[in-house]
From TrEMBL:
Transmembrane segments: none annotated. InterPro entries: ATPase_NBD, Hsp_70_fam. GO terms for molecular function: ATP binding; ATP-dependent protein folding chaperone. This is Chaperone protein dnak, putative. The keyword ATP-binding applies. It comes from the Eukaryota. Keywords: ATP-binding, Nucleotide-binding.
């Protein structure tokens, strides 16, 4: 379960993990749920994953995203206060008197567990379709910034139960990532200290593990920032595009006044540009015709300029690493593992190298590095 995406995987014939498509064309399900109301009939429809993401701009107050910090979260906590500043939907105190944080859509309150249920159901349905038989148990890896405590696990267990799943075990996200990568890529034979650096769509975290010579690992320390991720990089590029539009039109452009199609085009263009610059030095972004006066205009963004724009964000990842290193103690780090889609960004990789003094271990699909399927296979043996 990720801040911006949730994945499901199964292990077949004790072989390589087989990722379950959560939709026809993607392997990861956006962690979004939207409540859409038909203006004619008043009937409410729940949209999950990509369907919810597509109407994020047309239905901002009815689309729930980035809600994972609410799982087990108190309404009066600092984390919830920060989340309120980042999302357009309403976060309210639970009506049951528990003091928990819930979300409110159209005057109706929903618990974070209820929102999570929709996502878990979608994953379960995809897995069952793929396997051809019912699935009743699952191992859950949760974001590393969540404490796997009673408050959090109770809500996730309830979400899973309603979705028709029994939680077989909870796994620290970095333990799962380490297991998934170590299973295929790491060399055993001596005790070593391994750092796991994760930069995903919504959060950044660093953990340290002591590994034995035969592959057992012990988590020794972990640090997280639940509000630093790929979406912050997207927002930075989006602001750059708004500045470019201002230059072209000689007037400020108010994002809130643009039509939904134009906002979506700008947001998607920003995300595509960010990803393109992982592998090319320059990219171009089409600007919405509705804003440019039906002229076909593009904005050019180089990797160097992107690095300048996002330097404050990359520096924050370095600060987190340094804090984690200080907490972990002076012992030398032997290996660094990169996890999360944003670790494809060259500037992020270079910053990790600079902080740890090591070339990090890069895997082909860093946003799919979770080892819960492997652990499930081990536990079932």
């Amino acid at each position: 379960m990720g801040t911006t995406k949730t994945c499901a995987a199964v292990l077949v014939n004790k072989g390589k993990p087989l990722w379950v498509d959560n939709a026809d064309v993607v392997a990861r399900l956006p962690s979004m749920v939207a409540f859409s109301q038909d203006p004619a009939t008043g009937e409410s429809t729940v949209l999950v994953g990509d369907q919810a993401k597509r109407q994020r701009d047309s239905n901002p107050r009815g689309t729930i995203f980035g809600f994972m910090p609410l799982l087990g979260g108190r309404h009066d906590s600092e984390e919830v206060a920060k989340l309120k500043q980042r999302v357009p939907y309403d976060i309210v105190k639970a009506p049951n008197g528990s003091g928990d944080a819930w979300v409110a859509i159209g005057g109706q309150a929903h618990s974070p567990a209820q929102i999570a249920t929709f996502i878990i159901e979608k994953c379960k349905q995809s897995a069952e379709k793929h396997m051809g038989h019912p699935i009743t148990e699952a191992i859950f890896a949760v974001p590393t910034y969540l404490n796997i405590d009673e408050a959090t696990t109770t809500q996730i267990k309830e979400a899973a139960r309603v979705a028709g799943l029994n939680v077989f075990r909870f796994v620290h996200g970095h333990v799962a990532a380490l297991m998934g990568t170590a299973f295929w890529h790491m060399n055993y034979g001596k005790p070593q200290r391994v750092a796991v650096f994760e930069l995903g769509g919504g959060a950044c975290s660093v953990s340290f593990f002591e590994m034995t010579d035969f592959g057992l690992c012990e988590l020794t320390s972990s640090s997280s920032d639940a509000f630093l991720g790929g979406e912050d990089f997207d927002a930075t590029v989006l602001q750059y595009l708004m500045d470019e539009l201002k230059k072209r039109k000689n007037e400020a452009v108010d994002l809130s006044l643009l039509d939904v199609a134009a906002i979506r085009q700008l947001r998607e263009g920003a995300e595509r540009a960010k990803k393109a610059l992982d592998s090319v030095p320059t990219t171009e972004i089409d600007l919405p015709a509705a804003v440019t006066g039906d002229k076909h205009l593009t904005a050019r963004l180089t990797r160097d300029h992107f690095n300048q724009l996002t330097k404050p964000l990359v520096d924050r990842t370095a600060t987190l690493c340094e804090l984690a290193l200080k907490a972990a103690g002076p012992k030398k780090v032997d290996q660094v593992l990169l996890v999360g889609g944003m670790t494809r960004t060259p500037a992020v990789v270079e910053k990790v190298k600079e902080v740890f003094g090591l070339n990090p271990m890069e895997v082909p699909n860093p946003d799919e590095v979770v080892g819960v399927a492997i652990q499930g296979n081990v536990l079932q043996c």
